[in-house]
Request: fold
Amino acid sequence: MNRFRIWIAAISVLGSVSSHAADWPTYRGDYARSGVSSQGLGGTPVVSWTWQSKHPPQPAWQGEAKWDGWNKVFDMKPRQAFDRAFHVVVSGRRAYFGSSADDQVRCLDTRSGAVQWSFFTEGPVRLAPTLHAGRLYFGSDDGCVYCLDAETGKQVWRTRAVPGDRRIPGNGRIISAWPVRTSVVVQEGRVYVTAGMFPAEGVHLLALDANTGSEVWRQVQNDLPAQGYLLASRSRLYVPAGRNNPAVCDIATGKRVRVVEGAGGTYALLTDDLLVFGPGKTGQLGAVEEGASDQLATFQGNHMIVTGNRSYLHSDTEISALDRGRYLQLARERKSISGQQAALAKKVKALAGKSGVEGERETIKSQLAELGHRLDETTRAMDQCLLWKVPSAWPHGVILAGDTLILGGTGEVVGMPAASGKVGWKVPVPGIAYGLAAADDAVFVSTDQGAILCLRAPSASESPSPSTPSPSSNSSAPLRP
Reply:
């Protein structure tokens, strides 16, 4: 199947937590995990400052198995790559992130990189916190969900997600038997989060009161884990399940609606009509329509950006732009033709072995041939919706900041105009750039070496200094719970 033969809908604003266009208040900017911001850089950036952790991130999962002998799949893709960097969220002049290396959440000044405050938990904080109404929400491997005052870092409340406080060895640490391995979603006065990764022990999906941390409802699943970033619309929660496929739950009650089909993974994107997730075992993203469990289509790639009338597909070796409007028209036509083919094929099967129906069979064969011709023409037209395709050596992350695609690679970050796909600038970074965020007229880059860099275009009022010394990870007095 051609990689572009997928019906892609317009990006949804459902679940967005941003009250200001320049903010990036949750992972990938919103609860659809769109990776899109109206915030541009306004020029070619340089490194304004770098914050460096004393210890690199400590991922929960070091990598995928090398091969799947049963299915003869080799060079498998890591499907649980949600905590390989300290992902940043931003509001105003403050950037926040959690650490899996030293169990802290920190607040940095976005103009200097100076630590404003830090807060200790009793276990690794693996996912980016969520900003909402002046508060910071996150979970930890210690099994607790936290709410802090975003300005001061002082604890507002802490709730143990599962009443029992049983501890077990995990990743060289002693952690809760029910660690919080998903992000937190805050919407309409409720906090949504999961705890637990072993189905036999019970994996808990909870809604908490955003002001007090008290329990609103709880659902327990005993067949799937929960690891990665939650997605949300006004009516649904989408729960990633590590190597397994995501579960779709009713946001009002937490009850499961369905589990979608696919090849698993913790990357996911929610659009108006589609849930796109992966990367599966071989770098494939699957697309499932709202209300369905089976996949509409799959395509080779790591990430997708959907905005306006375009879609951008990002793989290990290339990035491409698609005319989404035209493509949607053709995709609907193709779907209709395929449905007609299936109906006629069913008729042919029903006539098999019957006598006196030769004329009817010949008519159906003629109709199938015509539909095949139309399908080929539609497929060629869909291929022509490709606006541009360029090689890419930067497969680890992509966002759209203003009119510029920002790509994360090994040892560098690249910016390219979304209109052309031509490389506009490159900035060297230490390590692999897994984390990208756009806010406060800057791009924030997080790497697997524990570095967080602020890329900002030079201006007359602020002279950037690529070698600006950054505060050490212990440069401010920590606040303990």
Observations:
- Residues 48 and 464 are 5 Å apart (CA to CA).
- The chain is about 10% helix and 40% strand.
- Residues 1-21, 463-481 have pLDDT under 50 and may be disordered.
- The longest helix spans residues 324-351.
